[in-house]
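Researcher: Here's the sequence for the chain we discussed earlier.
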Amino acid sequence: MTKKTVALVVGTRPEVIKMAPVWFALRDSAVLEPFLISTGQHREMLAQAFGVFGLKADADLGLMQPGQTLPDLTARVITSMTATLRAHRPAAVLVQGDTTTVLGSTLAAFYERVPVGHVEAGLRTYDFDAPWPEEMNRRLTDPISRWCFAPTEWSAENLRKEQVPGAIHVTGNTVVDALLWVRAKLQRANVSAEAVAQRCVVPATFTRDFLQTPGRRFVLITGHRRESFGQGFENICHSIAELAKRYPDLGLLYPVHLNPNVQEPVRRILGDNPRVALIPPVGYEDFIWLMDRCHFVLSDSGGVQEEAPSLGKPVLVMRSTTERPEGVTAGTCSLVGTDPAVILREAAKLLDDPADYRRRSALRNPYGDGSASRRIVETLEWALAAN
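Model: Thanks. This is the structure I predict for it:
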């Protein structure tokens, strides 16, 4: 029997991470097979993510251009994806998340009358400015999708309230599948602190004091959101500096995003602080290794909010709102925004109250159990086999 092709579209590192386990599940299907399309929206980080999972794009659109605008990129995604879909005629298209790649690919598939499945559907802040433009991208993608794969019941309820016409399936988040896969890979390889530090360019002193010395606590930090550019990042950096001052035995490890709007304030305010290690962006495997060993995470990343609870790590979310409120409700995450007083207050709870820290570390991850990809593929097998 000839298998039907399902195209998976990725353009950024998070999309590769969250789609990789779906690719594996499609590969193992008796009736479906994957066709991986890369738009190249984040070219410099895609190859690294593909390498983690041993994947290679079947079609690489190479759309990344220096200084590109959102209208330019959106137009190129639509036209390039249209040509690709016409050439390969998949039975369905899967997109993940909220990027320009997602919206442009969904529109192209809609125009070509190819059904779309939206992985991670239904996330909402109901604030078009936060995150921008991602909130709008998601809200435009869901009504066009034939299958909305919601990670949680809260996300599914958002879709029901909006009366989206597609079928809604609660699957869990595929990022948990990816996280557990990578952690098992790291454990099999018995990866050492020295190897991780060398790849991540972690200073030798920080490596010795915090990565190699048992019992020494460090905080893992990430930050890149557009809405925090300017005063927001200034506040974040001053909060980190104050944490280092108040807790002399605490390390702070910050893989700094390449965007100049992030680099400038971080380097200016934290560059001379001996206990704040500023390192280049790290690969996904190394990030998971570091997250598995940190005390807690200070981040504005959506993926980190979903991943860290599976490792027992609380997250202080440096955003005023989140489209992932399940973690806040469960207690695995706390919204702290970019207000230094709030960041320091919530960090102190995790550093000064061992009992509360243990309680939060033991909470169940509300975002999934590691079987989301299998549920998605089972739904597609049933739906496409009927056609």
